[in-house]
Write a structure and sequence with these properties.
Amidase signature (AS) enzymes; 11 strands; alpha/beta; 13% strand; 11-stranded mixed β-sheet
């Protein structure tokens, strides 16, 4: 593993790795691991929002350890992974406070795609995705509020899973917006994600072939539209005209409502130290938090009503389908110049509906002709849905 880290440039290491134990300490962790357990001696990195007892949680910032007591306990997911035999190899960097899609971080450096320098991994779980994509570890923890597992998985050619808001794996993780925050993870292969999912969540086997629909999107780059359509055809037929129209209309307000609620909850969560540490925030994150603090009750009420309407649309989807497939993003991994507000909105238009719905999502990679990748998000109604292992087995089948 250390050899894989050494192959990264110093800038890549600084942007991806928040903390790593010494060689001796890591050897002790491997020696203590239960190798007979389901995840015996599998090394992993944890996004630096998950607490580890006695180690500072920085959340991609420069000051959180000053503002918050040193954690006395491991986060529940970290503790469970230890029980399952996995070995914590370190903590990974992120877009500051998980409040961004691009993996840009002015404090530690922008987290670039390990195979395509100059392009982003996506965020906010940027370091975790980069370390799996670079082959440093086979598994890494992330979180997903708006798309922070889904987008890096798509950009980096990985498999990813986000769970549900408020479950046991996210309740003790440093929050951005509790209404939408979820835990999740990355792997490089479908088989690895299937194994991790079985150990951590489990599933019900399907009594029949699951029924899904593929919802295309009007604002996709042509190469992404073609690749995603072809990949989705392996597991789902295109949505019929009525469903397509209903969901395009019903999901139109999701991104705006999502952004409003996240800004509101984010500003509330940071109010205890925002004034004192204001100048040490990433300016883009600071601006979003300040905008959240300025929201009126009427704006928040309108956003909540829009969220409720999106959730009703999801209820209708699952009355007739077991899953819905959508592209993760309209484009491949962005360059620095392409990390713009307009591309942020293009991405959130695709990912916010599932976030607002509070739904689990499996992400599978879709290769593009130039070697970059896109992704499909498979939205299900329960983390133990039989759709998840069915799709992963399909992707792991020969010829994929």
């Amino acid at each position: 593993m250390r050899e894989a880290v050494a192959r990264l440039s110093s800038a890549q290491q600084r942007a991806a790795i928040a903390a790593m134990p010494s060689a001796d300490a890591l050897a002790e962790r491997f020696a203590a691991a239960n190798r007979a357990a389901p995840l015996g001696a599998i090394p992993y990195f944890a996004k630096d929002l998950f607490d580890v007892a006695g180690e500072p949680t920085q959340a991609g910032s420069t000051f959180l350890a000053e503002a918050r007591p040193l954690p006395a306990h491991d986060s529940a997911l970290v503790a469970r992974l230890r029980e399952l035999g996995a070995v914590l190899a370190g903590k990974s960097h992120l877009h500051e406070f998980a409040y961004g899609l691009t993996g840009e971080n002015p404090h530690y450096g922008d987290c670039e795609h390990p195979r395509f320098p100059g392009r982003t991994t996506g965020g906010s779980s940027s370091g975790s995705a980069a370390l799996v994509a670079a082959g440093v570890v086979p598994f890494a923890l992330g979180t997903d509020t708006g798309c922070s597992v889904r987008l890096p998985a798509a950009f980096c050619g990985l498999f990813g899973l986000r769970l549900t808001p408020g479950d046991r794996w996210i309740r003790d993780v440093f929050p951005l917006a509790p209404s939408f925050d979820t835990a999740g993870w990355f792997t490089a292969t479908a088989a690895d994600l299937l194994h991790a999912h079985g150990a951590l969540v489990g599933w019900r086997e399907a009594a029949r072939e699951p029924r899904g629909a593929y919802l295309d999107w009007p604002d996709l780059d042509p190469v992404v539209a073609d690749a995603c359509g072809r990949a989705a055809a392996r597991i789902a037929a295109p949505a019929d005209r009525d469903l397509r129209r209903d969901l395009h209309e019903g999901f139109a307000a999701a991104a705006g409502a999502y952004s409003t609620i996240v800004a509101h909850e984010g500003s509330h969560g940071h109010r205890a130290w925002f004034t004192r540490y204001r100048d040490r925030y990433d300016p883009a994150v600071r601006a979003r938090l300040e905008a959240g603090a300025a929201l009126t009750p009427a704006q928040i009420d309108t956003a909540n009503a829009a969220c409720a309407a999106v959730r009703r649309r999801w209820t209708q989807v699952f009355l007739g389908h077991d899953f819905l497939v959508m592209p993760v993003a309209p484009c491949a991994a962005l360059t620095k110049a392409e990390c713009t507000p307009s591309n942020r909105q293009r991405i959130l238009a695709l990912t916010a509906p599932a976030s607002v719905g509070g739904l689990p999502v499996l992400t599978v990679p879709v290769p593009l002709p130039d070697g970059l990748s896109a992704g499909l998000q498979i939205v299900v109604n329960h983390p133990q849905s039989p759709v998840i292992p069915w799709v992963l087995r399909t992707w792991a089948a020969p010829g994929r």
